[in-house]
């Protein structure tokens, strides 16, 4: 009889403990419910254009084509740009020659010629000065007229001026060009090189290269079109990154921390979620946008967050509605 009481007592205690444990699990699940968010796929796009204006010669891709980063997809008529490069190169050659001439200074033959002109001017001045002095002596004895004396003085001064100019020229030839002239020639050369670099860059920019991996969404123009610089030619949807734009209420803001891993479900893959990671949470609240379908009131204030899809594929499309869960991996909709 005592053993039966013990067994009954143990059964009662087990039932009570099971009830307490079940109640505790229910309480825990109510305190930390699985968070589910609703959002849309957000794939970034790039409007591709030429940096220079010109006539579109070729466009090698069409809508839906998959392209790789750095792949050439279009070409402008580059004939005007080739001409500009050749002209800029000629200007560089001319400026370089002038700079080299300034740096090299005067030739020995030119210096020797200037020295000979100094000697000639010196002789002419010596003669004119000597003649002027004789005229002065003869003027003292009234052997010459005042007009003859004046002519001799003028001739002596002219010869002196010619000698001074010849000496200055020789000094210039021997000392080389002035620093200011060298600086000016160097600046002209640098300007010519800059114009050549710009012409070469313009020529390079006649080829349109894909800025990243992606898929062509829109082909805006056709070959033969005259384009302005910056006119959109193609619209490219980037392959990476693929983001999810979702919204979380203030009550659940603590669970949506940057870096937290989440599961992303689509209607086409309800049992095979994508994996993602929260990358950004807006610091400011806003009203829930109408494009987001949630069971809550649309007028609730929420915080926008961005989820980076770590295993994205081609099935995810721009604007596709998705469900983001913070649970342990059970398919959404299951409790």
Quick synopsis:
The chain has 335 residues and is α+β, with helices and mostly antiparallel strands. The protein is built from five helices and twelve strands.
How do the helices and strands line up, and which of them pair or pack?
Layout: H1 2-31, E1 36-49, E2 54-59, E3 66-67, E4 72-76, H2 79-104, H3 108-140, H4 146-175, H5 179-204, E5 207-209, E6 214-219, E7 226-227, E8 232-249, E9 261-266, E10 269-287, E11 301-309, E12 321-325
Antiparallel strand pairs: 1-8, 1-12, 2-4, 2-7, 3-6, 4-5, 6-8, 8-11, 9-10, 9-12, 10-11
Helix pairs in contact: 2-5, 3-4
Q: What can you tell me about this protein's structure?
A:
This protein has helices at residues 2-31, 79-104, 108-140, 146-175, 179-204, and strands at residues 36-49, 54-59, 66-67, 72-76, 207-209, 214-219, 226-227, 232-249, 261-266, 269-287, 301-309, 321-325. The strands form two sheets. Strands 1-8-11-10-9-12 form a six-stranded antiparallel barrel. It is built from five helices and twelve strands. The protein starts with a helix and ends in a 10-residue tail after the last strand. 43% of the residues lie in helices and 28% in strands. The protein is elongated. The chain is α+β, with helices and mostly antiparallel strands. The longest helix has 33 residues, at 108-140. Helix 3 runs antiparallel to helix 4.
- Counting DSSP E segments of at least 2 residues, the number of strands comes to 12
Strand content: 25-35%
Cα radius of gyration in angstroms: 46 Å
Overall 3D geometry?
A: elongated
**Would you tell me the structural class of the helices and strands?**
alpha+beta
- Helix amount: 40-55%
In angstroms, what separates the terminal alpha carbons? 46 Å
* Lateral strand order in the biggest sheet: 1-8-11-10-9-12
Taken in chain order, the helices and strands follow as HEEEEHHHHEEEEEEEE
Biggest sheet overview: 6 strands, antiparallel, barrel
Give the number of helices.
Answer: 5
Mean model confidence by pLDDT: 82
In the predicted model, the low-confidence regions spanning at least 5 consecutive residues are 329-335
């Amino acid at each position: 009889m005592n053993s039966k009481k013990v067994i009954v007592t143990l059964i009662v205690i087990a039932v009570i403990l099971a009830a307490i444990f079940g109640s505790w699990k229910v309480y825990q699940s109510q305190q930390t419910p699985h968070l589910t968010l609703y959002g849309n796929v957000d794939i970034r796009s790039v409007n591709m254009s030429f940096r220079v204006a010109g006539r579109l010669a070729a466009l090698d891709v069409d809508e839906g084509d998959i392209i790789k980063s750095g792949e050439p997809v279009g070409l402008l008529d580059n004939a005007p740009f080739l001409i500009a490069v050749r002209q800029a190169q000629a200007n560089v050659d001319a400026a370089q020659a002038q700079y080299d001439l300034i740096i090299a200074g005067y030739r020995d033959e030119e210096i020797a010629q200037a020295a000979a002109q100094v000697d000639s001017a010196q002789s002419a001045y010596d003669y004119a000065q000597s003649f002027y002095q004789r005229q002065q002596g003869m003027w003292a004895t009234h052997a010459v007229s005042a007009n003859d004396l004046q002519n001799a003085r003028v001739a002596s001064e002219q010869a002196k001026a010619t000698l001074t100019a010849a000496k200055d020229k020789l000094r210039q030839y021997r000392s080389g060009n002035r620093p200011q002239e060298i600086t000016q020639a160097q600046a002209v050369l640098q300007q010519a090189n800059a114009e050549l670099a710009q012409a070469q860059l313009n020529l390079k920019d006649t080829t349109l290269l894909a800025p990243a991996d992606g898929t062509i969404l829109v082909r805006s123009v056709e070959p033969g079109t005259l384009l302005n610089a910056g006119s959109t030619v193609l619209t490219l949807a980037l392959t990476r990154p693929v983001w999810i734009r979702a919204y979380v209420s203030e009550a659940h803001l603590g669970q949506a921390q940057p870096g937290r891993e989440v599961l992303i479900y689509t209607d086409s893959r309800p049992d095979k979620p994508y994996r993602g990671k929260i990358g950004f949470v807006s610091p400011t609240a806003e009203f829930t946008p109408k494009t987001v379908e949630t069971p809550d009131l649309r007028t609730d204030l929420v915080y926008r967050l961005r989820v980076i899809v770590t295993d994205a594929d081609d099935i995810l499309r721009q604007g596709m509605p998705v469900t983001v869960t913070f649970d342990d991996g059970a398919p959404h909709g299951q409790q």
